[in-house]
Design a protein that fits this description.
Uridine Diphospho-n-acetylenolpyruvylglucosamine Reductase, domain 3; 12 helices; Enolase-like, domain 1; about 35% helix; Uridine Diphospho-n-acetylenolpyruvylglucosamine Reductase, domain 2; alpha+beta; binds flavin-adenine dinucleotide
């Protein structure tokens, strides 16, 4: 059963921000409800007010604008998984991650904004967005701030959003066509897996077939997603080959070991990430499997 609260369904972002700024007592924002409703049912939360974003159609848009891709916070996993821009090329990692979330019902309801604000270390969209170097636009009555996702996420289940603020949009710089992306997750079960370890990879090809830039973001190995900086540095300026793949895989595994220290899951994750990393890098650039150009 849900605890008692007053339910509000504002018709505009301005009205939602006004309610959050002016209602007395505790408030919670409702997007798809896939995290919030179970938490209310369990009695983990008992807000005085629930402010639903369901009427804010403007926050369901995906746009390409002035060199940025902008995704409204209410865009669902299903929409990300079928949006044409994300079906191939550099942004494919977003569709791949969205498609692996929960079951169809969760994908139809759950939103990108909710996944970010929920800030689970296993949140599946967080590694791809980290690799894409995403920023979040957070609005409050009379103002807004834009900050890197990496600074917005502060720990497991924690962000620096204030209760009167709404995450309106996430954006990231457009990538060149010579970039490719992939996402690989090793989960507990197939359909309702909560990610145990995941890797989002972006590989940008440079002249002569070298790796101009690699961005590798690991999920579920630290309180927030982390970049595998050693592997990124060793890939830069070199031609993909099976030998280089193994060097990168070893560096990624070291990053996981450094991050987990002596946690019980460390030996398993350190080994498991090797398969995840191989698959993600080969998907992003098949020359890691075959060499050649
Ligand atoms: C069965 C099941 C399986 C799942 N499997 C996965 C999985 O495989 N991978 C995965 O990553 N997640 C999974 N989840 C978790 C969940 O679906 C996601 O975290 C989802 O993205 C949350 O989005 P939502 O719109 O439902 O958020 P809500 O539940 O509505 O909100 C979540 C939190 O974010 C806040 N919030 C939401 N939107 C905003 C906003 N725009 N501005 C400010 N605050 C906001 C809410 O107040 C609340 O605190 C699963 C959940 C269930 C129930």
């Amino acid at each position: 059963m849900l605890p008692p609260f007053d339910y509000h369904r504002p018709a505009s972002l301005a009205e939602a921000l006004f309610l959050l700024a002016s209602l007395p007592g505790t408030k919670k924002i409702l997007a798809g409800g896939t995290d919030l409703v179970p938490a209310l049912r369990r009695g983990d939360l008992s807000p005085d007010h629930v402010v639903s974003l369901s009427q804010l159609a403007g926050m369901r848009e995906i746009k390409e604008d002035k060199g940025f891709i902008r995704i409204g916070a209410l865009v669902t996993f299903s929409r990300l998984a079928e949006f044409p821009l994300f079906l191939k090329g550099p942004y494919k990692l977003l569709a791949e991650a969205a498609l692996q979330v929960g079951g169809p019902q969760v994908r139809n309801q759950g939103t990108i904004g909710g996944n970010i604000v929920n800030a689970s270390p296993a949140g599946d969209l967080l590694p791809p967005l980290t690799a894409l170097e995403a920023r979040v636009r957070v609005c409050r009555q009379g103002g807004e701030r834009v900050l890197p996702l990496a600074g917005f996420l502060t720990g497991p289940g924690r962000t620096c959003i204030h209760p009167e603020e709404i995450l309106a949009e996430v954006d990231f710089p457009a990538l060149p066509e010579r970039a490719a992306g992939s996402f690989v997750k090793l989960g507990r079960r197939n359909s309702l897996a909560i990610s145990r370890i995941s890797l989002a990879a972006i590989v940008i090809r440079g002249e002569g077939g070298i790796v101009e830039e690699a961005r590798l973001a690991l999920g579920a190995v630290a309180p927030v997603p982390i970049r595998a900086r050693k592997a990124e540095a060793l890939l830069r300026g070199r031609k993909p080959s099976p030998a280089l793949l193994e060097e990168a895989v070893a560096a990624i595994s070291e990053t996981v070991a450094d991050s987990l220290g002596d946690r019980p899951s460390a030996p398993y994750k350190r080994a498991a990430v090797r398969g995840v990393a191989r698959e993600a890098l080969i998907k992003a650039d098949p020359r890691f499997a075959s060499g050649g150009c």
